[in-house]
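User: tokens in, sequence out, please.
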């Protein structure tokens, strides 16, 4: 019997929010994994803090709600403790590119085998509209009423420089491609990074700009670092340049958890350790 992935939690995302599309794509990936024989008991979804994080409430799967900026180290710890698990980590742009930036860079550097989906709406939505590291210069929000005077970072360039082994960009209005990129990230052995241009319907709705500028990569060689850099640099999260969607870069590298030849704890020891922690909490 296939698992019903819907929970009974009341959904509080705004109508039109791009988080719905990301959740739909993640569910599609999970259903395909299950159909291919993977037990969904062996899949863990980790989220950070922010609007995106409610995906853990709304998806009927093992999940862990981390604190702000710490979704990646939690996902890393889960993978190291049990390398047999498939770990999907969802984070916001504030989570991944601001408070959690060091964790992001080290996850790419180490090539830990997790899939990171960044819900990059380029605004802090949950706290009602402050600028984030990918907000464009001049962004008018609650914390920058005169307009932000900072240029945004380009997370794809950052990940290429950090030696990430799978670098992709999706868009919440291109759902088939989005699901394909997440599925590719899950299948990839190593750190898979997918920056998703996510519509925030309430505080930063970029639908018109994205629809005008996005295009899907064709005739692009994802094994070429130089080509990936060129595609990543076409759009700097600020300008009106074309925005490439798809898999920019993929390489084979030693995977971090493979450097630990045996699981850190065998199953029985792990169960006992968990029991001991639970006992201490009582
Ligand atoms: Fe989505 Fe933005 Fe509403 Fe948050 S504030 S739920 S990101 S539309």
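Assistant: Sequence out:
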């Amino acid at each position: 019997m296939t698992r019903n992935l819907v929970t009974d939690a009341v959904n509080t995302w705004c109508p039109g929010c791009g988080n719905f599309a990301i959740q739909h794509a993640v569910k599609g990936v999970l259903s395909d994994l299950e159909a291919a024989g993977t037990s969904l008991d062996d899949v863990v979804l980790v989220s950070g803090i922010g609007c995106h994080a409610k995906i853990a409430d709304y998806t009927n799967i093992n999940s862990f709600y981390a604190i702000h900026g710490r979704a990646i180290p939690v996902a890393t710890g889960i993978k190291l403790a049990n390398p047999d698990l498939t770990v999907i980590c969802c984070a916001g742009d504030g989570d991944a590119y601001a408070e959690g930036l060091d964790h992001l860079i080290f996850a790419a550097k180490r090539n830990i085998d997790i899939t990171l989906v960044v819900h990059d709406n380029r605004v802090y939505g949950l706290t009602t509209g402050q600028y984030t590291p990918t907000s464009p210069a001049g962004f008018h929000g609650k914390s920058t009423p005169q307009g932000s005077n900072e240029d945004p970072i380009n997370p794809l360039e950052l990940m290429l420089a950090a030696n990430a082994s799978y670098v992709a960009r999706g868009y919440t209005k291109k759902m088939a491609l989005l699901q394909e990129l997440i599925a590719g990230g899950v299948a990839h052995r190593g750190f898979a990074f997918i920056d998703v241009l996510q519509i925030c319907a309430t505080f930063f709705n970029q639908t018109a700009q994205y629809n005008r500028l996005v295009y899907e990569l064709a005739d692009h060689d994802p094994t070429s670092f130089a080509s990936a850099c060129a595609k990543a640099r076409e759009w700097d999260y600020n300008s009106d340049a074309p925005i490439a969607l798809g898999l920019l870069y993929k390489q084979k590298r030693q995977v971090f958890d493979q450097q630990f030849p045996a699981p850190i704890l065998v199953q029985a020891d792990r169960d006992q350790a968990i029991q001991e922690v639970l006992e201490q909490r009582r």
